[in-house]
């Protein structure tokens, strides 16, 4: 910004702005602004009384003309037309009023055209000239128009009469000179009316009457002279008055010691103004050069630097013209010598307020619109640059791939050539008493007869004989298939077949068999060497290998391009599905509190108007007579501050209230709370979290947070259970939302960093919470807030309790589990900061469309085919019967928490229902592990084709089970969240779960939970049960298996439905970000 060059002005700019905010009318330039306006007012009064005493040209004019001149003078003093002011000043100073007159004459071009038209019509009618008195001159005669009569005389007579009358006319003109100007003014209107009538008469009659034509030309010329004279006179008067005003302003400001004034005194947008500086009053008094450097609107808009010139005014006044843009509300400037000497109004800078244009907020919105256009253009340029870069990468990759294909083709040809050369050495033209070919000389595409003596080999007793052949060491596989017929030759058991020699064949390859391919049993393959015959007239060997290399190269290119196109299409589809899933999840997130608050439209757009709907019946404001909306933007940090409280009005739907809010262009988040009164009272602030709605399309993006996760596990490098998956996946999801994320494993050196959020996971990282608060804050690291997440309260309760005390916010991994543990002593006293947020799954790791461990990629669109292929592959891998049976999968750690007694019962019950069952998992307790080993032995003995227990860890097999199973059973006694049921639904498998913790929050029974699912924006998606006994699990498992047997079409639609639900980290990441922001307010 140009103002940065000012040595001291920048130090007090903020002070200046504060003063302006406290007093809107205040201005750093009062010393000259007030004086400027006062002089202007005085001059207007004075000049109204002077009545143009110096204008001798019109002192005999009537009172009407005098009033017009006085009005013109007033206009000069208050004029906002910069071009006129500039011209008057220039003409007055340089004595160029005649030039002004010439310019003005150009404005009467239309009248001259009218006159020309009349003359042309006269010429066309036979007239050769027209005099001012209406006399029309032809070639030999003169027509004098008088009293509507035409008198015709010869030219010579007319000249003589004219000479006699000239002397009398001169005397008359001299007598009438005193009154001519008065008559001209009084007769202007009458002549204008008469001229119009004459022109109308000419236009209507096409050929003008002589008297009309002559009188019309006279009136046109007289009016033109009158109007030109009046304008010329006005310009002279305006220029004189402007010089007088500037002289008075200069004298007045000089007496007061003001160093600055400007003209006109009221500055408006899109106008030229003249700024005057008295050099002798400034720090530049000894400088030969004076320049003005400035910008508009607090130095934010259109900077400029202009050199001043010495003015014509008395004293050391220097001036320049500055154009005020239409967007300006203030002009800020300083003066300097072009180097390092500045006049900056004692460090306050100079400023001139601009009236009648934008205000500050209008200008800010204008800048935002301009910024949005700039961002749009930058985005377009970036996209174009990325497209070009991608195209360049594609070209370079294509060149590299082509070179690789050529190398591979050469290598393949070399390999084939070596093998074929060895084969040629063994090839024959014929073998006595076994086979021969007629004719003996042949080439590619020739038809030949190949003879075979059946009794020479194992086909001696075969009913039929077939040839299975190819060429060039079976290069293209089977290309010759023909049944042989008996020959008439008597010296043996000869059979023959007519075959066409393949084009390009160097060697023929074949065997004989007792039937066609796929049906033959007995072969004669020359003792495993096959039969080989040389093609005598084959193409030159070198030419063949050159062509062969080209064929291989082209084939490799086609295959590669097909692979690339398939991979690209798959990647695009994956990205599209991710995007659509994220959009659906965001919509669900925005609607998740529709029973309390929502917006219309749901996706709030920057620069648009939005309606906020609120239902106080479900909040602390239930029953209040009034509800007030208190709103702002960008996490309450927006430049506009808190909007005025707005009383909400009843909405059409009855239970909700509504209010309308205009969203600014630089908003990225809409923030609001509700109160019972305009000035406060009871608030609904969502239990301290406030209500927030994201804004789309703004010119400002949310600043990223820096979040550090502290954990002893992180998949895949350090993983024991689900904690490692959660830490890695949550970090990726938050990072995808443009925040900075680090994961720290022991040792915990992250405390040396100044982060926004330190997120500790479970009892193993709990000490970090109090270590940070008690020790590291003494070293100035007090910015970060601590969030602590409980993944399982069964372990490390004492450490968890202390971490709860020191954390700013605390969570556990599902809402239901948070309620289940809320009575625990380590939790109960901290419920105000304790929240339940579901875990999610990594949709890149668990993705049936891109899973390399399953045989067929699938989405919800082809879920039936995909799961069928996976089931068949699973049955084959585990040695189960390949049958269309309901298959129950169990993937778990074998602990009492996981309900191992229910697992055992469910295995037997599934087998009783004629289903198949597959279990994958192991037990950390050796006794439980041995117990399941014995069960596996028993099942593999009694139900080997329908049961398989894999008591180990096998990641690839787990993917295949999720895809191949119809049901995934999770009968946990307690489950803080659970990932198994979420992964199952990702693969289109139906979850059968016990109602506890996160299982209850994610699996909605198809028979009993329709309303509960709808409240979460979902549809029912599985089967669940109460209790922890056999009856409970049988109730859910029986309904599931029966639905598979009796309603396959409905069951398949359920598989499709659960695949389309989003159980990734899209939604949990949004909840955690809200929690992080709430923690930062603590």
From TrEMBL:
Family: Belongs to the glycosyltransferase 1 family. Bacterial/plant glycogen synthase subfamily.
UniProt biased composition (Basic and acidic residues): 28-41
GO CC aspect terms: amyloplast; chloroplast
Disordered, as annotated region: 1-91
Source organism superkingdom: Eukaryota
The protein's annotated pathway: Glycan biosynthesis; starch biosynthesis
Main location as per UniProt: plastid
Subcellular location: Plastid, Amyloplast; Plastid, Chloroplast
EC number assigned by the record: 2.4.1.21
This protein's name: starch synthase
Top-tier EC class: transferase
GO molecular function, one term: starch binding
GO biological process: amylopectin biosynthetic process; starch biosynthetic process
UniProt domain Carbohydrate binding module family: residue ranges: 270-355, 445-536, 607-696
Coiled-coil annotated residue ranges, if any: 364-430
InterPro entries linked: CBM25, Ig-like_fold, Starch_synth_cat_dom
Keywords tagged on the record: Amyloplast, Chloroplast, Coiled coil, Glycosyltransferase, Plastid, Starch biosynthesis, Transferase, Transit peptide
Any one Pfam family match given in the protein's UniProt record, by short name: CBM53
Annotated catalysed reactions: [(1->4)-alpha-D-glucosyl](n) + ADP-alpha-D-glucose = [(1->4)-alpha-D-glucosyl](n+1) + ADP + H(+)
